[in-house]
Amino acid sequence: MSADASKALRVITGLSRFEASAEEYTVAQAAADIVEAFPVPTVTEDVCRVYTPIGAPDFELRITWRLAEGAPTGPSAPEFTALKMGERAVAAPDKAYVFFACRSDRSFDSTEVAHIVIAVRRWGFPTEPEGDIEALKDAYATVTHSVSLAMAKELRCENNGGLPARPVLDPA
Q1: To pair with 33 at 20 to 30 A between CA atoms, which of 69, 109, 125, 149?
Q2: CB count, 10 Å around CB of 1?
Q3: What is the pLDDT of residues 69-125, one digit of tens each?
Q4: How far apart are CA 131 and CA 129, in angstroms?
């Protein structure tokens, strides 16, 4: 996770320390699962979960992936702000999604494109977001971009799946 994403987690949770997910939850393992599942669209699977330390207020983020049938079409839900990253990126005060296309001779048939969706969402019993709503949107978008870029690099996607080196937080 990037340094910006680590700072963004602090904005989202108010904390700078977290409990680890199980050892099998890594970007490398999720990338291997994507390669194994391709080309069939999948249900949502975990990359990892982020928990607050024991004794801190209960908070859980779920970071997930899925293979989509194709590029996203149609408008996004009104709760989201569209951002210029990948095939589509959207952020809300309690979740964000990045859709990107991956062509990789290492991971897939080089003539086919995998359409991957990475999401970061508050999990469990979410409450209405409190605080600076724009800062929360930016924070969720930053974490989702970081995980998406790490996944694109792990899969060796051509042109990093169209993802920029840093998150683009200005509305599209």
Answers
A1: 125
A2: 17
A3: 999 998 999 999 999 999 999 999 999 999 999 999 877 777 889 999 999 998 765
A4: 7
